[in-house]
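for the record, two folds in this file. i put them one after another cuz i was lazy. first one right below, seq on top, structure tokens after. the second one comes after a little note so u can tell where it starts
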Amino acid sequence: MQEYTPSYQRLIDELNKLPGIGPKSAEKLASYIISLDDSSFNDFIETITQAKAKIKKCSICYNLTEEETCDICRNLERDSSILCVVEEVKDLIAIEKTGVYSGIYHVLHGVLKPIENINAENIKILELIQRIKKGTFKELILATNLTYDGELTAMYIYREVSDPGIRITRLASGLPVGSDIEFADQITLRNAFKGRGIVRIMENKA
């Protein structure tokens, strides 16, 4: 029976580790990479190398940037009294595309998953709590996904923020339970922001 060469199989196995890439997709990607001519392949490798070398997390909000701080944190026209907490950078991008939000962000880079031993120390929650303590925020928007893990994470943050002067809200209207923000259309996401409400319901459910 014909099998892939060891190097080819290793390439497939590594590609298979990428999020959302199954065995068949990994095979197709491997085939594409191997079929590239030398010039295209070198450009491909250089692009990955440059991205890995240049892209880093913003020292303030943990958005991805090629500078010490990201464009949003440097923008003095943004409303720095409103802080929106998102799971991933892709959620930040989705919200930005709506044009409805003009505050600043905090990117967690994950959610709490106790079963997988992903706790507050493993994502940017402790940094968020410290940032809130040092800041002068009027509103904290918990824009984690409406999944079990997203709700758990939002509830944890809500309970850790003890400042009564901060209005804590949660995206609700228009976003169905179990949905991911990155996949929501812009109209739905706009409505979710406009219809956000105080996070009292989460406390009552606990």
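(here's the note) second protein begins now
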Amino acid sequence: MTSSEMAVLKCLVAVAWADGALDRPEAGMIDGLLWAYAADETEEGEIREFAKSRRTLKDCPLPPDLRDDERELALANAALLTHADGEQSAEEKRVLAELARKLGFSIEAAKPIILSARERAKALAGKL
């Protein structure tokens, strides 16, 4: 896993904590992301330790050289995380908007990424 991917995963942990708890659905998504990023045991341990206590986006600085595709994937995954428990709270929406700004997205550019993730979350929930 690259240092950029590690930074992104830490931001996703912070998004998972946005509603004040990192519950089983969010933890499961974090596990899936660790697998998707091919994290080794050390990296998994670092992320799991990081996730043990409440985090905010202030706890996870992003490298300035993230590629556009990395930024878009981070925002899409964050949007999915905010729907992991079936509800998107006001605080989750606020943190998602904060992450979008932190990633360098304008509201107009972030909106279709977030809406697409919301639709995917709804479609998946309908299959469960």
